[in-house]
């Protein structure tokens, strides 16, 4: 391989499989393969099942390219170039339906691979991403020849990062996001076993994939992988049994549903304080602010609710990330976008007062939300008062955070809700009197002007909300 070129950067989340590593170079996503992995890639590319998955967009676009060089003198037998996913997200930022669709795609791909003589080494939710509301499999290096007598190597990972979180939501009504965020490898079988005792032992999927899985894991705790494989081969375990298992899991996952309790935010557009005149003026202002200047590559809609303004932003930006704290609201938005075939709006579940931090090995294996952002346009509509009053975040820090999410020269469209607004009064009613003396329009405007160049402002007809369009960097 040629000498390493300036700018070649290793992907921090790609180190667990030494046979292939992902790198970034000049905006491209590259994967280096060793001799064995290169041979498997050639067999994969020539198979009957893989090219149709590529053509259908179910696997990320991939092609072999001339080797550009490797860091630290490492040499690769082959290099692949992958399509760039517009915004990398993590499974703990997905809604229930997003996680289920990702699981179903993984199973669909495995079901197609097994009859063709392939399997996957991994079963992790991190092997998938989303193009808008469409899941896509990204870990091409995970494909490996299937061997008779060996079970699916990715089964445990699939359970811990996909199936178990879905069971928590479907059977216990729990939001899985905090569980996945807390541990990059997902939920262990012994933890699930403790949650599914008594009558819960009999819920769909629990006897086999929780209790039996945990029992087998404890039984084989001291056995080597080779010993377990030898025992399975002796027992007549076959590729057909693996395929039957995959089909059974797929049937189970399709049946899982999560119906969260009613939420105020589910009907926010009807119950919020906006009049028709306010809403119309707000939409015009946002559209004009987004259209003023070069077309943004990436726009963030913070506090997206039902996606009204994310859809508006998508008319003016290449890609929109719609962030919403309420998992039920976000799930409804995802389902709508999925039904529409929308590939330019990515909905994510996130508490803006506690956004996704860096995680995994050295805190860098999974990048924080702030590190992934770098947006050219940021919508902060009906958000500032929830952070400043609802979560006690000082106004200067709210604005520092917003500016930090943008690329240099980013456009910020922010809404300041006056203390006399019905929503602000509702939030203030639950706080000690006088705790927010600086929460005033004049102070907000002063702080914004110290960090950005304000290019336009608008008082909505109701008189209790003001919109600002500003540009960072002066």
Descriptive report:
The chain is an alpha/beta fold and 474 residues long. It is 39% helix and 18% strand. The chain contains 18 helices and 16 strands. The strands form 4 sheets. The protein has a 7-stranded mixed sheet, with helices on both faces. The chain has a 5-stranded antiparallel sheet with strand order 1-2-3-5-4. A hairpin with a 2-residue loop joins strand 7 and strand 8. Helix 3 runs antiparallel to helix 9, helix 6 packs across helix 7 and helix 16 runs parallel beside helix 18. The longest helix has 18 residues. The chain is globular, with a radius of gyration of 25 Å. The chain starts with 8 loop residues before the first strand and ends with a strand. The mean pLDDT is 91.
CA-CA gap between termini: 45 Å
Low-confidence region ranges: none
The whole-number mean of residue pLDDT values reads: 91
Q: Nearest-angstrom radius of gyration? A: 25 Å
Percent of residues in helices comes to: 25-40%
How would you sum up the global shape? globular
What is the count of DSSP helices, taking H or I runs of 4+ residues? Answer: 18
Core attributes:
five-stranded antiparallel beta sheet, 474 residues, 16 strands, seven-stranded mixed beta sheet
Per-chain topology:
Layout (H helix, E strand, L loop, with lengths): L8 E2 L9 E6 L2 E6 L1 H11 L4 H6 L6 E4 L12 E5 L13 H18 L4 E3 L7 E4 L2 E4 L5 E3 L9 H18 L4 H6 L6 H7 L10 H14 L5 H10 L4 H17 L12 H4 L4 H16 L6 E5 L5 H7 L4 E6 L2 H14 L4 E5 L19 H4 L2 E6 L3 H7 L4 H10 L1 E12 L4 H7 L12 H11 E8 L5 E8 L2
Parallel strand pairs: 10-11, 10-13, 11-12, 13-14
Antiparallel strand pairs: 1-2, 2-3, 3-5, 4-5, 6-9, 7-8, 14-16, 15-16
Helix pairs in contact: 3-4, 3-9, 6-7, 16-18
């Amino acid at each position: 391989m040629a000498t390493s070129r300036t700018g070649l950067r290793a992907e921090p989340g790609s180190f667990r499989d030494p046979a292939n590593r992902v790198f970034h170079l000049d905006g491209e996503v590259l994967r280096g393969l060793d001799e064995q992995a290169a041979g498997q890639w050639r067999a994969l590319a020539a198979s009957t099942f893989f090219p149709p998955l590529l053509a259908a967009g179910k696997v990320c676009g991939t092609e072999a390219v001339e080797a550009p060089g490797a860091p630290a003198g490492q040499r690769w037998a082959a290099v692949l170039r992958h399509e760039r996913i517009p915004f990398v997200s993590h499974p703990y930022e997905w809604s229930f339906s997003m996680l289920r669709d990702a699981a179903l795609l993984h199973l669909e791909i495995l079901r197609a691979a097994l009859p063709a003589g392939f399997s996957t080494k991994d079963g992790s939710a991190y092997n998938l991403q989303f193009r808008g509301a469409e899941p896509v499999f990204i870990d091409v290096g995970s494909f490996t020849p299937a061997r008779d007598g060996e079970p699916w190597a990715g089964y445990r990972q699939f359970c811990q990062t996909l199936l178990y979180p879905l069971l928590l939501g479907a059977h216990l009504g729990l939001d899985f996001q905090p569980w996945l965020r807390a541990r990059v490898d997902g939920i262990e079988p012994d933890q699930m076993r403790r949650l599914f005792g008594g009558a819960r032992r009999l819920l769909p999927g629990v006897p086999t994939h929780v209790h039996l899985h945990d029992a087998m894991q404890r039984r084989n705790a001291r056995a080597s992988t080779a010993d377990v494989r030898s025992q399975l081969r002796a027992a007549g375990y076959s590729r057909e049994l693996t395929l039957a298992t995959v089909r059974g899991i797929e049937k189970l996952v399709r049946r899982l549903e999560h119906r969260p309790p009613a939420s105020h935010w589910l009907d926010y557009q009807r119950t919020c304080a906006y009049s028709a005149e306010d809403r119309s003026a707000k939409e015009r202002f946002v559209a004009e602010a987004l259209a003023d200047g070069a077309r943004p590559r990436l726009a963030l809609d913070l506090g997206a609710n039902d996606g009204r303004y994310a859809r508006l932003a998508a008319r003016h930006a290449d890609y929109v990330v719609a962030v919403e704290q309420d998992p039920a609201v976000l799930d409804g938005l995802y389902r709508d976008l999925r039904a529409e075939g929308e590939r330019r709006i990515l909905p994510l579940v996130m508490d803006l007062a506690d956004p996704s931090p860096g995680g995994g090995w050295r805190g860098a294996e999974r990048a924080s939300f702030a590190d992934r952002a770098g947006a050219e346009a940021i919508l902060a509509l009906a958000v500032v008062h929830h952070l400043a009053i609802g979560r006690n975040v000082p106004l200067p820090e709210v604005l520092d955070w917003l500016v930090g999410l943008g690329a240099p020269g980013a456009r910020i469209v922010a809404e300041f809700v006056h203390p006399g607004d019905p929503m602000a009064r509702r939030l203030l009613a639950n706080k000690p009197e006088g705790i927010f003396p600086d929460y005033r329009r004049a102070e907000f405007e002063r702080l914004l002007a110290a960090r950005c160049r304000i290019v336009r402002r608008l008082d909505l007809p109701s008189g209790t909300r003001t919109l600002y369009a500003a540009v960072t960097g002066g």
